[in-house]
Amino acid sequence: MAAEDRVILSLCNGTGSWEAPYREAGYRVIGVDPLNPSEFGHDVRTMRVDQLPPIHGVLAAPPCTHLASSGARWWEAKGPERLEDALATVFACIDIIAKVRPMWWALENPVGRLPRYLGKWIETFQPCDYGDPYTKRTCLWGDFTMPRRRPVEPTEGSKLWRLGPSEDRWRLRSQTPPAFAQAFFEANR
To answer: Which of 35, 111, 176, 189 holds its CA 20 to 30 A away from the CA of 19?
Structure first.
């Protein structure tokens, strides 16, 4: 099957970084995210899947703001509503994956609350495992081929933790590391 005949469904990937290698290789990428709306919707919780073409692979990156351990000190103050909203998005992604039955799928999120609700992850990685010289432990759930690691020294340390306040802070912190995105593409075509 030619690349242009394969469809990748990208759920909640507002930065577009994880899907970028697929798009660059000529795959059709359908994004469902408030920042990347498609004709199939902009919110996974209300998305209709009945008109989707056959899906080859699914990349799901639900927002981690209310799930990641990095924000644990604010969990109690946020209240249960924000956790419930975040989990509704995660479970909508899982429901969509079950309905479209792709060849492979992956859902990512930083270390945090999700193992309580999805079970233990299948794999974890650090960006430096794939050539990006920083750390940010990320968990993966799904049915996919884990890419071969090509580690480098994390010379930039935990650079995302040290980001100061800005309008782009969330985007910078949530971006899929480019070297991992490329390695994942190579292992899951």
So the answer is: 111
